[in-house]
Amino acid sequence: KSKNICPTIEKTVPVFSYRYKESEFKDNVISLIKKHNPKVLVITGHDAYYIKRKNNENYKNSKYFVETVKEVRKVKNQNDLAIVAGACGSDFISLIKAGSTKYLLFL
């Protein structure tokens, strides 16, 4: 019979979830940040990369994620709020340039 030698530390982390279309993120995010004052913000949805599209429109929804991150960074800096943004196929370079958090470390 095995015994757990690492004690379990349980912490309660409040989680609030809202559902919007990607194009609606930017218009709703600031009021939600003011309401909940989170330490971590996750912005996700659906995205895809299209090879044949032109004029910097290769990504289905990355522009909405980028716009949302930029909007949040107007009121919360890197030290106040960690932002995890994007989805499968997102333009992560643009998201990081917009202000998404590069590295997260949870202890």
Q: What's this entry about, in short?
A:
Helices cover 29% and strands 7% of the residues.
What this model shows, in words?
With 107 residues, the protein is α+β, with helices and mostly antiparallel strands. The protein is built from 3 helices and 2 strands, in the order H-E-H-E-H. Strands 1-2 form a two-stranded parallel sheet. Helix 2 links the parallel strand 1 (40-43) and strand 2. The longest helix is centred in the first third of the chain and has 12 residues, at 25-36. The protein is globular. The two termini are 29 Å apart.
Percentage of residues in strands? 5-15%
**How many helical stretches?**
3
Mean pLDDT: 86
Helix content: 25-40%
Question: What's the arrangement of strands in the largest beta sheet?
Answer: 1-2
Shape: globular
Low-confidence stretches: none
Cα distance spanning the termini = 29 Å
Main beta-sheet annotation: 2 strands, parallel
Q: Write the element-wise H/E pattern from the N-terminal end onward.
A: HEHEH
Radius of gyration: 17 Å
Compute the number of strand runs: 2
Structural class, from helix and strand content? alpha+beta
Q: Can you tag this structure with a few keywords?
A:
107 residues, alpha+beta, two-stranded parallel ribbon, 3 helices, 2 strands
